[in-house]
UniProtKB/TrEMBL annotation:
Domain Beta-galactosidase trimerisation: 422-619
Designated name of the protein: Beta-galactosidase
Family assignment from sequence similarity: Belongs to the glycosyl hydrolase 42 family.
This enzyme's EC code(s): 3.2.1.23
Organism: Deinococcus grandis
Length: 678
């Protein structure tokens, strides 16, 4: 590895290490190897509660003291964790009420991880106690530069408990929100199916209903559970700020995690981190446009746009819905990838060995999307328990694995830190996600699928994207894309309309403003408070089963929509495309009213064509990128990536299989593939 001066502002690397998993005589040699590899950070102890406190109130710090000393001797910086994702057996057996319930009413037992209910007062007490104990011990240790709270909130479907402590306090949360049962019944529409409540104690979690639960009930339970996670983390952050001043505090978020509002949970952190596993992501989260052939094609790299989307979510997260900034001193400028896949994983339906060059490509892509640190999971492959099939930088026998070699070959001086010049905002909102997915109405479509399809269209046009909360200030963007913001209160609509009147073009997708804040539909129909801005009303919506398509024709050519099509009755908007054939024949499919364009049909080709038109008119430079080739920009550099398993010639460049090249920030293709905005 070519190592820059450690004080210079270039991408830095780290690893996740588990000294408790190996004999103590390995700690010093591992630290030496990590430093020689060019790693700067080591994350430790997120799952070490049973070793730190083997019996109630009896602490064993010696082993972790020695491990940290070994890291410090090599100049490595330690990211310490609160060990709360794995409460030990002695605590669970003494207080089984800590355990959560799944949505089938079953207790989720001890024996893996994340086995707790965020609402449990007993667990909250022990969370504060162990956090304080660890922070008192290491909070001002010179080698400890920061903290990770807990680990991967929501992993394994643990963001919500549907019984026990959570269910017990849900009515009080509702009473604080609505004040009276009449207001609750009105907001939820409980007159429907005689669901009205006459006592707060009658309200339970929205689980095990005979048929689907009331979507408003579900929406509020999701809000309630998200608030629990936010308050749980806030307790830990407060203790860490008190006992470890000057160190950063972060949390490692997850791939497409949907169980809580990340904007709220991130409040009070210094920056976000996330855990990037591209091959597993491809199997679990690919949208409908990524079919089995594409999954096979990208099996050893993951799909570039799925990875990039998560990078952009977590780079943008700390902006928050109200401009939230960092709290604390000495923080990096950008987000981190706290866990970066560096070989095969163990948890997906298929777990192929990554392609040669994939680890280097993933690292470069993370930098280009704003990461200041990439930390590889894990140092040595586990030799015991659930993750023995998961790779590390070292194999089980301690020999360097393929990812180790790729990290060793990195030239970090290619990767200066600095801003990502994103001029296009893509709006993303967890409440819209929750209510959309509760009543998808089309089995193959979801909030993520619809949102990522628009994102893929933007990336295929070579556009750098900032994922943005819909209530953020949008006035500084060249254009705003809102693929699936289905929940639009009146004040949000007013802010959007003001931004549009100020010259910012908006592109909306299907189901925009379909819902009220309570989860019902507007009494005057979609678009509710956006009706004046869009100059239209919903006419019809059509859920298309696989194999059934709906033609669209007009200013953007002729395409076939799949999965979803909705039409509009224009009240001032211009119709740019209509449906051809089928029950929507002749009805408006794409409309425009001033700076608002609405796309009613789900079609990547149509979305791409409309975005090309809108962004070109807004002066956003565009590129014609072939499938598998992506361009990202940061700090006056341009990263051109080839995600194919074969070489590609594009833009005057010869790109090797699974590779990237760093060019100047003013680079443009030399073969006419670029299209400058007007």
């Amino acid at each position: 590895m070519t190592n820059p001066d450690p004080t210079a502002e270039f991408l830095m690397l780290g690893t996740c290490d588990y000294p408790e998993h190996v004999p103590s005589d390995r700690w010093a040699p591992y630290a030496q190897m990590q430093a020689e590899l060019g790693l700067r950070f080591v994350r430790v102890a997120e799952f070490a509660w049973s070793r730190l406190e083997p019996r109630p109130g009896e602490f064993d710090w010696a082993w972790l003291d020695d491990a940290i000393a070994a890291y410090a001797a090599e100049g490595l910086r330690v990211v310490m964790c609160t060990p709360t994702p794995t409460p030990p057996a002695w605590l669970i057996r003494a207080h089984p009420e800590i355990l959560a319930f799944d949505d089938q009413g079953r207790v989720r037992e001890f024996g893996s991880r994340r086995h707790y209910d965020f609402a449990s007062p007993v667990f909250r007490e022990h969370s504060r106690r162990i956090t304080r104990a660890v922070a008192e011990r290491y909070g001002q240790h010179p080698a400890v530069v920061g903290w990770q709270t807990d680990n991967e909130f929501g992993c394994h479907g643990t963001s919500r408990s549907y019984g026990g402590a959570s269910e017990a306090v849900f009515p009080a949360w509702l009473q604080a929100r609505y004040g009276t049962l009449d207001a609750l019944n009105e907001a939820w529409g409980n007159v429907f199916w005689s669901m009205e409540y006459t006592d707060w104690a009658q309200v339970k979690s929205p689980a095990l209903t005979v048929t689907e639960p009331n979507p408003s009930h579900v929406l509020d339970y999701h809000r309630f559970a998200s608030d629990l996670i936010a308050s749980f983390q806030a307790e830990q952050v407060e203790i860490l700020r008190e006992l470890s001043p000057g160190r950063f505090v972060t949390h490692n978020f997850m791939i497409f995690e949907s169980g809580f509002d990340h904007y709220d949970v991130a409040r009070g952190l210094d920056f976000a981190t996330w855990d990037n596993y591209p091959t597993g992501m491809l199997e679990f989260f690919a949208p409908p446009g990524v079919d089995e052939d594409l999954k096979t094609h990208y099996a050893r790299t993951g799909h570039p746009d799925l990875v990039a989307f998560n990078h952009d979510v977590y780079r943008s997260l700390m902006l928050g819905k109200d401009g939230l900034g960092r709290d604390g001193a000495g923080t990096p400028n950008g987000f981190w990838v706290m866990e970066q896949q560096c070989g095969q994983v163990n948890w997906a339906p298929y777990n192929p060995l990554p392609a040669e060059g994939a680890v280097a490509l993933w690292t470069a892509q993370a930098w280009a999307h704003g990461a200041d640190v990439v930390s590889y999971f894990r140092w040595r492959a586990a030799t015991m328990a659930q993750e023995v099939m998961h790779s590390g930088l070292l194999r089980h026998d301690e020999t360097p694995d393929r990812g180790f070699a790729e990290v060793a070959d990195l030239d970090l001086t290619q990767f200066p830190v600095g801003p990502v010049p994103a001029r296009v905002a893509l709006l993303h909102d967890y409440e819209s996600l929750w209510i959309y997915d509760q009543q998808r109405h089309a089995a193959g479509l979801s909030y993520w699928a619809q949102t990522v399809t628009y994102y893929m269209a933007l990336r295929s046009l070579g556009v750098d994207v900032q994922i943005t909360h819909p209530d953020a200030d949008l006035s500084g963007f060249a254009a705003v894309v809102a693929p699936a913001i289905t929940l639009v209160p009146a004040d949000r609509a007013a802010r959007w309309e003001a931004a549009a009147q100020g010259g910012v073009p908006f592109v909306f997708g299907p189901r925009t403003a379909f819902r009220t804040p309570g989860g019902a539909t507007w009494s005057d129909g979609q678009f509710g408070p956006l009706s004046e801005m869009t100059g239209a009303r919903l006419l019809q919506y059509d859920s298309l089963r696989p194999g059934v398509t709906q033609g669209v024709t007009g200013a953007f050519g002729s395409v076939d929509a799949s999965l979803w099509a909705e039409s509009y009755r224009v009240t001032g908007a211009q119709t740019l495309a209509t449906y051809a054939g089928g029950p929507l024949d002749g009805q408006s499919a794409v409309i425009r009213h001033g700076n608002a364009t609405v796309i009613g049909a789900h079609s990547l080709d149509l979305i791409r064509a409309v975005l090309r038109d809108v962004l070109g008119g807004a002066g956003v430079p565009l590129l014609d990128l072939p499938e598998g080739v992506r361009v990202s920009r940061r700090a006056d550099r341009t990263l051109v990536q080839n995600w194919h398993p074969h070489a590609v010639t594009w833009g005057g460049l010869e790109l090797g299989p699974v590779s990237s090249v760093v060019l100047g920030g003013d680079w443009t293709p030399t073969d006419g593939k670029g299209a400058k905005g007007e």
